[in-house]
Amino acid sequence: MSLFDQVYDRKKTDSLKWDKLKAVYGRDNVDGIIPMWVADMDFAAPSCIKEAIQTRLNNPIYGYSFEGEACQQAIIQWMATHHQTTIEAPWIMYHQGVVPAIATVVETFTAPGDSVLMMAPTYPPFFNAPKTLDREAVFYPLIEKERQYTIDFDDFETYVARDEVKLFILCHPHNPIGFTWTEAELQKLDALCAKHDVLLVSDEIHSDLVLNGKHVPTLNVTQHRDNVITLFAPTKTFNIAGIHAAMMFVSEPAKRKAIQHTMQRQAQGGLNIFASAAITGAFSEAGAEWLETLKDYLRENIRITAEALNAVDGLHIEQNDATYLMWLDYRETNFEEKEIMNRLLDEGVALDPGKKFGPAGDGFLRINIACPRETLNEGIARITRAFAR
User: Fold this and answer.
1) Is the peptide bond before 112 cis (omega within 30 degrees of 0)?
2) pTM score, two decimals?
């Protein structure tokens, strides 16, 4: 039995995934619904994180703190060992999460009325964060053919060349589709952003969850390092999103100074005392060993899901290169999104509607398969029934 087969009861723990179903889906009765939506795994975090936090808890004074040498070196060593990326200590800037970091970067390097470019479909905070700051979200539509997504770089350049576009957010690996960008693609994106003086912000929060091949960090291929800001975090990888911890890698001193000014204006501090401990525990040898076991489990969950749902008439789903999020194409069934969402909830399973990720997501659903196999198999059975009845 795998340690990931353990089923935990997360109800009444203030879990967004389990305890907010009524508010998110508008159903009065959500008892028994399996949540396979938000990117949150139903697996216990590795013991090395719990032990690191417990060690800090053992000293009963929890006063003001800062990110110490152990936290900093854990990050630097992890990036060097797992991503062959050299991160210099001054480049590391801490934040409460990748989404708050996006908001800080957008506020720092754009002005109200400017445009922020992203690829569609994409993770909703990419377009919601700029909008709340009075910036315009501009979507470059990825080319989709038989559920494979590519970029027409000539067309992309017409977007990045617009005078009002000041910043481009890259989702790498991509959420919700679950693919990775190649070195050649990254080089082209890097060159076009630099050519048109557009800041490239690379969200690499899922980089440790590449399941097929190796993640290629944007910093490893860029010819314009000072034009790239990388966002990184252990939260998705080790299932510690409730412990708010993220970092930005910013090589240019002037950009770091500008970000610091914005964070001071926002009264943003650094990490909390337990987040620093969690990072140190996660980015350890024990954390790396746990992660390899997790990825094996996720690969099998993905295989099971793809095999089962591709057998249903009108459904198509690709096996992921990265993340535990799968992108289900139901366009051939001719269901409208509202109808199929109701059918799914009637059967007792909650997925993410595709239009949540922008208009390009119409006809798709996002499925989170990071759960014990017992839960997964029941969730798949309910999805199948929803499309069959």
Assistant:
1) no
2) 0.96
Across 199-211, b (16+ Cβ under 10 Å) vs e yields: bbbbbbbbbbbbb
345 and 33 Cβ atoms separated by less than 8 Å:
yes
Q: Are 98 and 203 in contact (CB under 8 A)?
A: yes
Confidence band of 3 (pLDDT split at 50, 70, 90)? very high
In tens, the pLDDT along 90-114 reads 999 999 999 999 999 999 999 999 9
pLDDT for residue 89: 98
Rg of the Cα trace of the chain? 21
Which residue, chain included where needed, has tokens 């060349």? Answer: 161
pLDDT interval class at 209 (50, 70, 90): very high
Q: How far apart are CA 386 and CA 389, in angstroms?
A: 6
Q: Mean pLDDT throughout 237-251?
A: 98
Q: How many residues does the chain have?
A: 389
Side chain identity, residue 10 = R
Report the relative pairing of strands 136-141 and 115-120 from DSSP bridges: parallel
Task: Give the whole-angstrom CA distance, residue 250 versus residue 235.
Answer: 20
CA distances 112 to 52, 115, 121, 161, 199, Å, are 42, 9, 24, 19, 16
Give the other-Cβ count within 10 Å of 363's Cβ. Answer: 18
Among 13, 14, 37, CA closest to 25: 37
Give residue 333's pLDDT: 97
